[in-house]
C-alpha cells in the first residue's frame, strides 16, 4: 500500500501539530504527498514538525498558522497553501457538560472548529481541486458522528454535521474525480482524550486505568485504542487509486463501537 502513489500531490491537514492530524500527515507523506501542517499556534516547534516530516519522508512540508475557529482564516489557509489536492479536515476540540450548564462560548467554539471549519476549507479547496481535475477530501468525524453520548451535545452535533457535509460535498463533486469521505474513529489515546481522563477520574472516583478500561474502552468491543497511524492509513487508503469510487461514505475505525 505504501508505494509513493501520492507523489506530486499536496495535502493540507488542519489541526495537525499533534494527535490524529499529525499521524494522518505522516502516513500521507509516507505515500509521497507534500504536506501543509496547521494549527492556531506559531511556535518554533510547530515549524520543526514540518522540517522533521520533510526529512523523514523526503517530501516538501511546511507549517501554516491559521485559527480554524475563524472562517476567513480557514479560507486563507488554503489560499496560502496555494495547492490543495488532498484536504483533511481534522482540527477539533472537546468539552463535556450537561446541556443546561454548557457554556455558550464552548458550544460556539466546538461548532466552529469541529464543523464549520470543514465547510470553509472545502469551499476554498474545491476550485483548486476542480482546476487540477482531481481531489480527495477526508473529514475526520467520530463515532460520535454516528452515535451519541450524554454531556457531549456540541461535539455530537458538530460531528453529525460533518457527516452530513461529507455527503453533500460528495454529491456536488461526484462527476469530477473528487471524492469526499469521513473517518469515524472511536477512542484514540491523543492529547484530546488524555485531557478528559483527570475529570473522569474525579467524577467516578476511579484510577486512570479504571477510567480507560471501564469508561473509554467499555464502548469498544476490541478493548484497544486505535492508533494515529491506523487512522492515517485509513486516510491514505481513501486517497489511493483503490478508493476512487468510494465517496460520500463513512469509515468507522472504532474497534466495533458502532456495531453494538
Ligand atoms: P488533539 O488535541 O491531539 O488534536 C487536535 C488538533 O486540533 C491539534 O493539532 C490542535 O492544535 C488543533 N486545533 C485545536 N483548535 C484549533 C484551532 N482553533 N485552529 C486550528 N487547529 C486547532 O486531538 P485528536 O484526538 O488528535 O483530535 C483530532 C480530531 O480527531 C478531532 O476532530 C477529534 O474530534 C477527532 N477524533 C478524535 C478521537 C480520539 O479518540 N482522539 C475520536 C474521534 C474523533
UniProtKB/TrEMBL annotation:
Its EC number is 1.1.1.30. The keyword Oxidoreductase applies. The keyword Signal does not apply. InterPro entries: 3-OHbutyrate_DH, NAD(P)-bd_dom_sf, Sc_DH/Rdtase_CS, SDR, SDR_fam. It holds the Pfam family adh_short_C2. It comes from the Bacteria. Gene3D superfamilies: NAD(P)-binding Rossmann-like Domain. One of its GO terms (molecular function) is 3-hydroxybutyrate dehydrogenase activity. Keywords: Oxidoreductase. PANTHER family: 3-OXOACYL-(ACYL-CARRIER-PROTEIN) REDUCTASE, 3-OXOACYL-[ACYL-CARRIER-PROTEIN] REDUCTASE FABG. Belongs to the short-chain dehydrogenases/reductases (SDR) family. This is 3-hydroxybutyrate dehydrogenase. The lineage of its organism: Bacteria, Pseudomonadati, Pseudomonadota, Alphaproteobacteria, Rhodobacterales.
